[in-house]
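Co-fold these.
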Amino acid sequence: MVTADALGVAKDEMAAKPLVLYESPGLVALASEEVAIRAVVGHEIDTYDPYEREVLVWHL
Amino acid sequence: MKIRYDARGLAEPDAQAPNIAKIEGEGPARQAVFDAADLSTRQINLELRRLVYYEGVADVTIQNPGAKHSIAVGILTRCRITIEGSLGYFGCGLIDGPEIHIKGRVGWSVAENMMSGVVVIDKIAGSLAGAALRGGDLVVRGDVGARTGIDQKGGTIVVGGSAGMMTGFMLQRGRQIICGNVGGGLGDSMYDGAIYVGGKVTSLGVDCVEAELTPWRPRTPGTQAADLRLGAEGLVPEIRLRAEALALRQPRAGRAQARPVDPRDPIHEPERRRHQVGPGAQ
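Predicted complex below.
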């Protein structure tokens, strides 16, 4: 979910949908697979997968 | 990179091994290394197969795997593979024999259907790690996602961090050692096998019962080397979980009948309610 000044994501309660998250000081990237994030970032990264029912929101 | 598919949907039907690996050393100690940054999945796997099957190199290092999917799958020989980076989905699946060290993280379904061998992951793993594992050891130093070892039929899964929900779902045989916490529905619908948890368990699934951890004792002296090696006693997990289903479905001699499931049993009740559908579902 994206609004003018915030980005939010919720992981489904059965953890059935893939979600990969990359966070750095200047960038937050979410995708269903890590290759998609790497295509944008262009350098070695560490990502992680939120657990079921996790809700994360970033504000500008 | 443009990937071509044939009429059956197979990717890159005429891909060739790129032949770019540098091989050093002599005889059985030869080591090979190649950079996968500009290679497709098919090319990486073809190059790996060329090295271990046709060149007879037993130690291969893959650089810059770039989280691509389905890398190092279907390797059916003993060899050592080092992956310097992260893998996407289905990494190291369908293997029988290799010892694989992944220095990054992995996506979903790592080492699925492994028959034998060792897979060690330095960082985290996504969901379904060790799905349908048949044998061998899968070690994840970090956390794992949901449904770790779903349908596991053998082998050992060791997790240094925490695990998500439905860990050991439909576990049929083998063991899991989770050093951290585990999510809800642990061991749901498991038939047999054992799950050792060092941290907290959110909730047990259907058919999963908590058992007392007893000191390890060989049933027949000298035949339980695997248990001794893992140190079931020395690791001191707080609880041992075992499938009640085994006792229910395989009544032993001298036992008149299997103990029926009490529908009011708190272990079964919440799950039953959750799966209920149609009129009256909550």
